[in-house]
Amino acid sequence: MIELGEDFSAWLGRLLTSRNMSQKRLAELTGVTAAAVNGWVNGRSEPRYEKIAAIAEALGVEIEDAVNRRAPMSPAHEASWAFRPAPEDGGREGGNTAAFAFTPSLNVLAREATQNSLDEKCDGDEPVTVRYILHELTGTTLQNFLDAVQWDRLEPHLKAASDPRQKVGRVLLDGLNELKRSGRLVLLRVDDYNASGLTGPEYEDGRFARVVRRTLDSGKAGSAGGSYGLGKAALWAASRFGLVLVSSTLSIPEDGRTERRVTGRLELPWHRMAGVDYAGPAWFGVEAPGLQHTSNSWWSDKDSTERLYLERDDARPGTSFLVVGAYDGSGEAEELDEMHERLVSSLARNFWASMVGGEFEKPKLRASVSAFRNGTVVKHEQVIDPHVYEPTRSRAVKAFLDGTTVSELTDRSQVLETVVPLGLKRRKDESSSIDPGIHEAVLLVALADEQEANPDQISYMRATRMVVKQKRVGDLPLGHRPFQAVLLAGTATRRESPDAEAAEFMLRTAEPPDHNDWVSTEDLTATYERGARQKIIDFKKEAEQRVREVLRSNEQEEPQREGPEVLRDLLRFDRPRLSRTQGYPTVQAIEGHVDDEGAWRVAVTVKLPKREDPWLLSATPMFLSRSAGAVPVEWEDVTPVEGCSLTSQGNLAFAEGATRGKFHGVTDPESHPVNAAMSQISVDVRRAKEFDA
Q1: What is the distance, to the nearest Å, from the Cα of residue 418 to the centroid of all Cα atoms in its chain?
Q2: Which residues pair with 272 in a beta bridge?
């Protein structure tokens, strides 16, 4: 059943206004009296189908638009840039102040934009899919894009605003000079799917107005990540020109449509051009009826979105943001492959826990990064696997989701779960004079491999499981085993109880604009009665103290355990016993399970030191059982996955210059010294030599 957009009378009145057509002229074109048209416009009557077809033809829209009372599509050539005039009181702004809250880096952009996507997740079990796509344009491809975005209209304003005496002006000037010098433009597209999309009207309250029209208005509440409305500014801050285009598929129809709601916003400082003063901001869209110097979003056709690099891959709701002239303001990533790696590392570092799923629960997020040059693939889509980047922490969160945590560690493969109390304070707007009580956050502790890059850390997170803060735990027991700890607070505990919701609200107000800690903020002080700051401090201290207690308890139990330590490794990452100064390959990560045939199926990621010659390695599966110790077994099958190939003699040949490779292996049950279910497995990698047959 088709949902009609609005009353026919309202639809017709709006179309007549947008087409600057009188009722009398419509009557002439449709062969009816002016009184009949007046009746349609005022809702006293509705035309028959054949007259609706005539009305559609007269207005230059599709019959379906008139029948379903939906907004017509507009080709891109009908869109134009509308610049806001400067205020008459002489006020000037040197740029959007919200953009100065962040360092204009790709790290910050990935963190802020992905957090916003998670906050807009639609209902259901499916994760939000976030894709970062880099496009480098040169030559004819570049010129075609500049024509589509009406660069000839934008460039004079950009030049007028590029005052080297101002910070924003210097960035604009550098961007214009770089474009002219290199003939190269980088676009960064940020897509989300299974998200709400920019719903709502053009100007009244709604997601569209908050993102496109307003500044410092998040409209978020409850467990949503941001409360400052600053996150969206990271997109504009990552553009050399302050220019972002938008295409959205809506979860709730607007004007009877959901697909290809397109607009653009340009953030410039005050500037003067041809004797006219401009406030700075400009919007890309179709003419707004009855308003001056204003553009509305438009419902675009596929050809236009393709030319603007805004055509989305599928019909799931969500939004695509295109950052024009994308760059890393830190100066640490300039080339396409560097920008790609920077985005991957930021997503993995900040959202690994959001990307972990359980046996019966899907992850909250799937994220990937790819790169193209003039339409040709430079970096294939890299889907980020949290178990590769954060193996110990991801194992801990998965155990929590699967309900397989323990209250006492008796094996290195186990994950301990305990609680950390957060004292909740009363909000100033609450009528009760009693504090809400205690929220029990979940603390997970997992023993880490000896080769863990950054051991002994604790990660704080709530709601969406984005990492709020990660820090090293101090004052640890002497000789303790390396570990990783995860603190899940609020609704990240998977509880929807009143205390969990109260903890979400309290911790949200305790986050500064870049959401990188729980501290005393103005929002916390303004919202809660005195003492909330101390509750937050005590909460974090108690979490670290609980980790120390767990480690001390575990060390005290250690002498009572039987068998060598190696038998407690379910998945062990062994470094070959060779000189570290030479730089030898190591197993970075291994994931696996025993299949129905009694074989271990493992996915192995190998880290390779850089060297001129390619690496040739043998990979041997080792069974670790209590009865037989470490025993080599045979592969039934080895399948290269990434960065390597299989030689005729069964060794792994890694690509020249590769720093990482991945393969899948299946052990041969006939070579097992014991049943696989009673064993543990590791993989030993060593240099190999090929011999002539």
Answers
A1: 30
A2: 277
Residue 262 is predicted with a pLDDT of 96
SS3 326: strand
Per-residue HEC secondary structure of 417-477 comes to EEEEEEEECCECCCCCCCCCEEEEEEEEEEECCCCCCCCCEEEEECCCCCEEEEEECCCCC
List, for residues 446-457, the tens digit of each pLDDT value.
999 888 888 999
**C-beta separation of 225 from 466 below 8 A:** yes
Per-residue pLDDT at 418: 96
Query: 336-351 and 106-119 are packed helices; what angle lies between their axes, rounded to 10 degrees?
Result: 50
Tokens of 327: 């760059």
User: Is the Cα dihedral 135, 140, 146, 148 positive or negative?
Assistant: negative
Cα 148 from Cα 140, distance rounded (Å): 12
CA 544 from centre of chain: 29
Q: Which two tokens stand for residue 376?
A: 């040709």
Identify the residue whose tokens are 């409850």.
Answer: 222
pLDDT at 227: 38
Average pLDDT over residues 47-60: 86
pLDDT at residue 162 in the model: 93
Q: How many whole angstroms separate alpha carbon 440 and alpha carbon 419?
A: 6
DSSP 252-312: S-BTTB-S-EEEEEE----EEETTEEEEEEEEEEEE-TT-SS-EE-EE--HHHHHHTT---
- What 3-state class would DSSP assign to 147? helix
φ, ψ dihedrals at 525, nearest 5°:
-65, -40
Strand 600-607, strand 586-594: pairing: antiparallel
- Cβ-contact 659, 644 below 8 angstroms: no
| Location of structure tokens 């240099």 | 687
Tell me the angle at which helices 34-41 and 8-18 cross, rounded to the nearest 10 degrees. Answer: 110
Rounded to whole angstroms, the Cα distance separating 604 from 588 reads 8
> Could you write out the three-class secondary structure of 233-268?
HHHHHCEEEEEEEEEEECCCCECCECCCEEEEEECC
Tell me if 353 sits within 8 A of 465, measured CB to CB. Answer: yes
The span from the first CA to the last CA of the chain, in angstroms, equals 70
pLDDT in tens, 150-168: 999 999 999 999 988 888 8
* Residue 608 confidence (pLDDT): 87
- The Cα–Cα gap between 305 and 307 comes to 5
* Residue predicted with more confidence, 100 or 64: 64
Alpha helices in 183-232 (DSSP H): 207-208
Nearest Cα neighbor of 265 from 220, 218, 193, 321 is: 321
Cα dist from 484 to 166, 278, 664, whole Å: 45, 53, 26
Per cent of the chain over pLDDT 90 is 54
pLDDT at 5: 52
**pTM exceeding 0.70:** yes
609: nearest Cα among 633, 636, 634, 582: 582
pLDDT at 580: 37
Sign of the alpha-carbon dihedral angle for 302, 303, 304, 306: positive
pLDDT at 224 over 80: no
- Any residues with CB less than 8 A from the CB of 599 and at least 6 apart, and which? 636, 666, 667, 668, 669, 676
The proportion of the chain whose per-residue pLDDT surpasses 70, expressed as a percent, equals 90
Tens-place pLDDT, residues 581-606:
346 788 888 888 888 888 889 999 98
